[in-house]
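## tool: complex_structure
## caller: assistant
## args:
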Amino acid sequence: MKKTELKWWGWGNPEETYNLEDRPNAWSYLEQKLGLDGRKCSVINLDEIELPASHLPQPYLNQLINLCGQENIEIDKVSRLTHSLGLSYGDLIRRRQGKIHNPVDIVVYPENEIQIQEIFKLAHESQLAIIPYGGGTTVTGSLEMRTLPPYQGIVSLDLKRMNSVQIDDISLTATAEAGILGPALEAEVNRHGFTLGHFPQSFEYSTLGGWLATRSAGQNSTKYGKIEHMLISLRVVTPSGILETKTVPASAAGPDLNQIFSGSEGTLGIITKATLKLHLLPESVGSRGVLFKDFHSGILAIKEIMQSGITPSVLRLSDETETEAIFMLRSRSRNNLKNMAERAIFWLLDKLGHSFMNGALLLLIFEGTPGQVNLERKISMKICRKYGGVSLGSSPGQSWLKERFKQPYLRDTLLDNAIMVDTLETATTWERLERLYIAAKGSLNQAIEQFGVKPLTLTHISHSYSEGASLYFTFMSKQKENLEIEQWSAVKKAGIDSFLENGGTLSHHHGVGRDHSLWLEKEIGQLGKSIVINLKSQLDPHNILNPSNLI
Amino acid sequence: MKKTELKWWGWGNPEETYNLEDRPNAWSYLEQKLGLDGRKCSVINLDEIELPASHLPQPYLNQLINLCGQENIEIDKVSRLTHSLGLSYGDLIRRRQGKIHNPVDIVVYPENEIQIQEIFKLAHESQLAIIPYGGGTTVTGSLEMRTLPPYQGIVSLDLKRMNSVQIDDISLTATAEAGILGPALEAEVNRHGFTLGHFPQSFEYSTLGGWLATRSAGQNSTKYGKIEHMLISLRVVTPSGILETKTVPASAAGPDLNQIFSGSEGTLGIITKATLKLHLLPESVGSRGVLFKDFHSGILAIKEIMQSGITPSVLRLSDETETEAIFMLRSRSRNNLKNMAERAIFWLLDKLGHSFMNGALLLLIFEGTPGQVNLERKISMKICRKYGGVSLGSSPGQSWLKERFKQPYLRDTLLDNAIMVDTLETATTWERLERLYIAAKGSLNQAIEQFGVKPLTLTHISHSYSEGASLYFTFMSKQKENLEIEQWSAVKKAGIDSFLENGGTLSHHHGVGRDHSLWLEKEIGQLGKSIVINLKSQLDPHNILNPSNLI
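## result:
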């Protein structure tokens, strides 16, 4: 449980890689698009990394050991390192270079709220900052202190030991502690015949507490809702006391306090427990791939699907650039018959005027009873045909489902080859969506070009609503040696500025963190920001919780 | 627009009455259940009511006239009276008796946010309290000051002139000013082929701002959600500035500020505008009445319907007492053939062991495309049959739809006949629902009996969710002469205590107001309440907005 066995320099399981060699067109495609020069980006040897010595005063360390037990304290290098930053491109670069500016001094694993309250007290007495830690998959800088002063040290408070689950079979709810990882929670819920329906890309390594603190979205959230929509009640330990909201389906008793803590990113308190809505495991799951002539036609189709009152669990529409990339990065089947069939399909699509090289691929997944799945598929496919979509059958959806948690491993492979790659996401109304898409893609590409390298920006619509959708951008280029962080920051800034200038939100599901906190005032206004600051002053008056994060 | 033409002593349109004379069994049923003695409860003559003279300092009055125009100021008796209290039973009694303790001194109708900000400033300078006013249909005492000091006077700020609407046809959203009444908003939205789907019982006389400020639920909210679920963004004018949230379908950029103002009941600011999710007008609407042998069987059925993943727009399940009341209060058809058919149905039901005298009536309404309506009806009816429900066809649903906004008129008729009648509502999870129902009904009846009169408590499930439902109680008895308010308060207290002791919420859709504010701490805890108080101190530092309401 304690010693992490995950990659300290990248994503997930060290045994797992995303191998581009099985994908015959992958390298030639990337080389052509990005103008690669064969440079590699290495990973420093762990032994060469020197973290500053732990700042913790010995009495504090002893108190923590007394409180939680020696076995629930870690001060070794790997633990400190992996708890000191997240997994954005900037974080990965600094992991590879071994440049951790303000590492945490200690990692502590409390097992209950009383220990958390004691840790708060000790931290206040010793002028320490506390960084709540779930799965560590943040891509917004929410784990890393930018400066140490005025603190004497930094404590990472890892919730992983708090991972119990209770199921209410009658009300279809799960009450779980915040430190539980995605797979453990979903498995327990499945055992009762239910699903939570929450599958963020970080699913395997992220926790319930992290999801709630950052308003996470799952890949099936078009049907099941974002985590804040599944949230019925929570318990939160703040330095000013404990709050527990009521487990009722809805209430008119004042403001909804759940929605103050969901999105608070560990700055107002530590969410220790939550009760969430469950769903029956679907009896039937159906999928369809559809190829449109262009992104625009696909957008019209998914808008109409969402506004028709049905809710597929996945509606993932790639723009022309991403569709081409998916096509060029596909693996070769070991089955010759399949390869022949594939070629026949491409020939046929070409005759119909459709191509993966300049079309837009839509994946649809439907879940429910067989009757619901059939009805939703029928309605959706009728709408897709209306906008010129051609069905590709169920195999694209099935491949995607199989590979969906593997994508983050590709990032490590690309990084090995000195490719900058990261993602940005936003959401807006349908009315503004295409304008925002064009503007943001243009801004990202332009910012990349300013570093004298070729840009490749892939976009898809990841989550849809009747009133709008989320746009997810993956930007890539050749890495600018010795300017990796500056290059990445400049591109991100261009993208986010463009989101905010075009009516998009600062983030639909990654959160704000420290990397995007400069934009928060633009997002919620001066008064909005002062409301969050005022909540912070009340609930964490000595500013010990994740200081300078979010606000 | 300005001079109200509504009943000053009761509900709605003075031309409209709910006549029990057309309902052949109504009086004998009520006489038998309640032990009536023929006493009447009169309404004081308007001329006999003497409101205290307006406290407003003349300079303030002049400033308001300068600001908004003479024609947008009212100080006449009816305007002051109708803006000074709501429409709970307690309010209706005091209207009939002409006992208005702290009437507002003036009613002002601003037309924009600048005027609202000026009114705040003037109020602060002259030590006046401001009561925001929408449609005046509150049943929680949220319009009435309990004491005047330390204020010099009270201003009712009526939003009705702020009633514009814009529709975004592409994103299916409506942006409307807060003073718009239900029918005007729905009509405008309908004109574009859409529906908001929000039909609270007060629909005809309540406003968007009131709905948002109190977290209102509509009768179709099982499908369309409560108003806070439809809310995309809002603008709110507070004494500390203006906040506008972003019109995006979802966001991960910090706490959701919408949900702080929804439910703030005019204490943190005045909501001036909101953008809401719309839906296509349903192509098809289907309904079914179903009779179960008992409430318990019906509960099992609607729980299973909601958990199957479908969402009928209405699932209204009456307990045995309410089912009998609906039956006894039904009107006689003028069509003899219909009456004969009805008798044949009763005979048949009786043979099947079902009766309206001790069964549970469920109304189901389905909305959507014909395919969706058919599928949902099929799934629902299969589940109902599983729990012994017998279909009554579509006529019960149709009659209910026709009469659904008429119920509040019945209250006036009952009051005329010296019957105490009011409602209380809560929500809880399915796991606790039946225990709460039995406990609360018992407490209500016992509290009524302590006044030496016979109780009649009707209950239905008004809104359902996959994890639970809302319970709606209508309690009645003979009025205790000269102790009307004490009797009513004691019964309400017994009901609410029982809700909170049995895991129910203080309110699912009426709100807290002043009548229920004593229970707020029990509902959200000491820290929860201090969060609301802290928000209040920040946003309304001089406590001019609806003082002592909610908190």
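## assistant note: The mean pLDDT of chain B is 95. The longest helix of chain B spans residues 430-449. Handing back to user.
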